[in-house]
Amino acid sequence: MILASASPRRRQLLERAGFSLEVRPADIDETRRVGEAPVDLVRRLATEKAHATWSSLGDCGASEPLVAADTIVWTASGEVLGKPSDEDAAVRMLRELSGVVHHVTTGVCLMLPAPGTAVEAPVESSFTETTSVRFYPLTDEEIRAYVASGEPMDKAGAYGIQGTGGLFVAGIEGDWSNVVGLPVARLVRELDALLRSRGGAEKDLLFELLSRKPGDPSAL
Ligand SMILES: Cc1cn([C@H]2C[C@H](O)[C@@H](COP(=O)(O)OP(=O)(O)OP(=O)(O)O)O2)c(=O)[nH]c1=O
């Protein structure tokens, strides 16, 4: 499978599920449009990343499935928190998340080569998944110590639930891997559905992944 993302977390999540990956990050403008809802934003950005990488593959396109994603954190008031631009921005974001529930939404876009010939338009689908996360109240000292560790700087909302940022988390509702950057269980089901709708899928992808033994070749 082609992963149109530079995120090492997404790569690890997919490899752990049994996929073999070719990493081809896309470079797009991630600016939010005026009035754009958080779920619309991530779906649009995931689709733009997928299209950018697909076009970079040249006339023949891809011979395997492609996946792109975008993750944001957003608050009850609809404020969107992307990756912090600097340490002060990270401190401001974490103060905002302190003691409250926020949402993490990942948009995912899947593309498949059309059956038979690569010159036909690819088939694609996109979806969003949202997880709610509740933080313990944080002191300014805790926030500053965490920001100084460097962990928040490349992560939406300025924390990593998979790292020491997990120590802020009082509760979570929804898929944990979605917070890390990719809702893998849903992705496999959506990819299965897309493979079936395109035709030519001989086997069930989920079944294939579940049947793998340690050391078996990767699934896609
Ligand atoms: C909330 C949260 C986000 N993140 C990460 C996932 C994403 O990598 C990042 C959000 O930025 P994204 O723009 O979604 O992704 P990216 O810039 O890392 O990679 P690319 O644009 O090439 O696809 O934040 C965590 O790792 N842990 C968390 O708990």
How does this model look, in words?
This protein is an alpha/beta fold and 220 residues long. The chain has a single domain, classed as Maf protein. The chain contains seven helices and seven strands. The protein has helices at residues 8-17, 38-56, 87-97, 140-149, 176-180, 184-198, 205-211, and strands spanning 2-3, 22-23, 66-74, 80-81, 101-112, 123-135, 169-173. Strands 1, 2, 3, 4, 5, 6 and 7 form a seven-stranded mixed beta sheet that branches. Helix 3 packs across helix 4 (140-149). The chain is globular. The N and C termini lie close together (6 Å). The relative contact order is 0.17. The mean pLDDT is 93. The structure holds thymidine-5'-triphosphate (TTP). Thymidine-5'-triphosphate binds next to strand 3 and helix 5.
